[in-house]
Design brief:
By secondary structure, the chain is an alpha/beta fold. It is built from nine helices and five strands; from the N terminus they run βββαααβαβααααα. It is globular and about 90 Å long.
Amino acid sequence: MRQVFLDTETTGLDPNQGHRIIEIAAVEINNRQLSENQFHMYVNPERDIDAAAQEVHGITLEFLKDKSFFKDIAEDFLSFIRGSELIIHNAPFDIGFLNMELGRMGLSNVEDHIEKVTDSLVMARELRPGQRNNLDALCRAYKVDNSKRSQHGALLDAQLLSEVYLNMTRGQEDIAINFSQDEKKLNLGKVNQNQLKVVHANEEDISSHEAYLEKIQTKSSW
């Protein structure tokens, strides 16, 4: 299954109050490697941007005036994410805005076009309970370079999230890789059974083993 990391920037915090998407980005991971395949668009929201939101992302209405409307990019966006696992930090926020935009066009929710949504914030909270788990904190924790992140930006944040996610999930992958490499070095599973020599314990070995077990039992009862 393709994994696509997604982020949006918006005019405000609540789509139910008429706030809109102004930037959307999605980057693809193949075999745990960031590919060159990505989707990134700025969007004309057809409304003002809250001052607090503009302080976060730095995107102005003047900059967006000549950009496409969401309805003009929706099909290309859906084509990019179709059949993928969408990985989003604080997924309910972005999914809420996406479904609002799609609903305006009479299209079905984003969940109907993909295989699943994974919320990386939920994952981070499980791995790091009681700690700050915003993107900046995770970049510090997993040694991901976020020095270019002076303000929020959908494309950069999606790319940083992909690196953070790979670090958060690297443990099991490393174990699998190391086992595979060790297996190749040792040629495990290729031993000729006829070459194996079975050595049976003699009476002295058995007696020594029983004495050792009795010693352990005695110590464990202290």
